[in-house]
Amino acid sequence: MASNHASSILVRTEILSLKLQRHCALLQSLIHRSKTSPSIPRDSRPTPRAISSTSTMRSLNLDNINPHIREAQYGVRGELAQRSEKYRAQLKKGLPPTPPEESLPFDQVISANIGNPQQLDQKPITFFRQVLSLIEYPALLESEDVLKKSLGYKQDVIDRARWLLNEVKSVGAYSASQGAPGIRESVARYIENRDGYPSDAANIFLSAGASS
Predict the structure, then answer these.
(1) What does the pLDDT read at residue 29?
(2) How far apart are CA 212 and CA 207, in angstroms?
(3) CA–CA separation, 173 and 193 (whole Å)
(4) What is the tally of helices (H) and strands (E) in the chain?
(5) What's the pLDDT score for residue 81?
(6) Distance in angstroms (rounded) separating the CA atoms of residues 165 and 172
(7) In this predicted model, what pLDDT tens digit does every residue of 26-84 receive, in sequence order?
(8) At what angle do helices 2-36 and 181-195 cross, to 10 degrees?
């Protein structure tokens, strides 16, 4: 359900982007005409046409936006998160508190401010970890038998690692700003197969996360 919602947002975003490009092109054309045409007395100028067919709306700015939005903070790593780290450090000492500190009525801190299920003992997905280990240290691929028979690596892990290394060459080097082209092409094909809508790798940006 979440993936379908994300793809729907992506499609709507692409549509809005195309509309915005058309509106910008029309606006540039109108500006160019106004600069090249002879000046007309203000009183005799015709009423300008609206670029959009929708009714004129008041634009948002800092003066008329909801004050609660202006005061909103990114609390994921805010005061509560900082306080939890303080408590965690205090528990780690294992010593009686020194004034003005007080003893804590708990012996563990669980950070629930961000999506971090592994802190709640959820096991990580093996596939990703194994692929990363191979592309970080490609020499492991020289011993496929050991990987599969002794370390539990599956063939799809080995195949994916070889494909990624062929695309990016080295994970220790900078990639293109949007992300490695081969990986973006793979993402585009996946979106097309999953959602049934065309997807262009040129519109895909790979990042390490919103708070990186």
Answers:
(1) 67
(2) 9
(3) 30
(4) 7, 0
(5) 83
(6) 11
(7) 666 666 665 555 555 555 555 555 555 555 667 888 888 898 888 887 777 778 888 88
(8) 110
What does 2-41 look like in DSSP terms, one character per residue? HHHHHHHHHHHHHHHHHHHHHHHHHHHHHHHHHHHSPP--
Name the token pair of 10.
Answer: 């992506």
* C-alpha span between 163 and 6 (Å, rounded): 26
CA-based Rg of the chain, rounded to a whole angstrom?
Answer: 28
- For the chain, give the percent of residues with pLDDT over 90: 33
Measured CA to CA in angstroms, residue 148 lies from 127, 135, 143 at distances of 13, 16, 9
> What's the one-letter identity of residue 108?
Q
User: Tokens at residue 20, please?
Assistant: 């915005």
Beta strands (DSSP E) in the chain are none
Residue 142 tokens, joined = 């020289």
Chain centre distance of CA 44: 51
Q: What is the C-alpha to C-alpha distance for residues 178 and 187, in angstroms, rounded to an integer?
A: 12
DSSP string, 109-139: ----SS--GGGGTPPPPHHHHHHHHHHHSGG
Question: Given this model, what pLDDT does residue 52 score?
Answer: 54
Cis peptide before 138 (omega within 30 of 0): no
Tell which wins on pLDDT, 157 or 117. 157
